[in-house]
Amino acid sequence: MKNLEAKFRLLNHAEAEARATALGYTRRAILDQRDTFFRVANGKLKLGEENGSTVLIFYQRIESGSLMLSDYEIVPVADPARALRVLEDALGAIATVEKVRTLMTRDNVRLHLDRVANLGEFGEIEAVIADGDDPERSRGAVDEIIAALGVGQADLIDVSYFEMLGKA
Q1: Reported pTM
Q2: Domains of the chain
Q3: What is the 3-state secondary structure (H, E, C) of 49-72?
Q4: Three-state secondary structure of 95-128
Q5: CA torsion 34→121→7→158, rounded to 10°?
Q6: Contact (CB, 8 A) for 6 and 127
Q7: By the 8 A CB rule, do 11 and 95 touch?
């Protein structure tokens, strides 16, 4: 699967949610998330725990202008504690990111309003791209929400939360 994404520092969570709602975004959930990242030769690998379910996610990002294009695979995990232990033993954990995410959606676009422990508040936009579809077809919707939220080119962040934690 693919997604077209943008990440930015969020100045006002409530205002961002109100602006997104005005564009037709709907709040879907409040998610408590814990992502553990592992050392890998290519891309990024994380064990994602969210409101009682766990998945293993592998992704690789490539630049696509001001936005990032990602290829990713998601695999459900039946035994999270054991999977975490095996992955830590085999690969080594490099970071754990804990956050509370407000998930909003409109069509194929997901807006994440995140409160990240030890980092602050951020927004993340992901347009989920169907297999065989052109990511450029979703760029307009992504650009629309970026503009509505008042995010400028200089506000965009091109690294993961765990990389930001490493620099903090």
Answers
A1: 0.92
A2: 2-167 (2.40.320.10)
A3: EECCEEEEEEEEEEEECCEEEEEE
A4: EEEEEEEEEEEECCEEEEEEEECCCEEEEEEEEE
A5: -80
A6: no
A7: no
Start-to-end C-alpha separation, the chain: 31
pLDDT of 66 over the 70 cut:
no
Taking only the tens place, the pLDDT of each residue in 10-22 is 999 999 999 999 9
In this structure, the number of other CB atoms found within 10 A of the CB of residue 99 comes to 20
CB atoms within 10 A of CB 6: 22
The residue to which tokens 């409160």 are assigned = 115
Give alpha helix (H) positions in the chain: 13-22, 80-91, 136-148, 161-167
- Structure tokens belonging to residue 97: 């990111």
Separation between Cα atoms, residue 16 and residue 56, nearest integer Å: 29
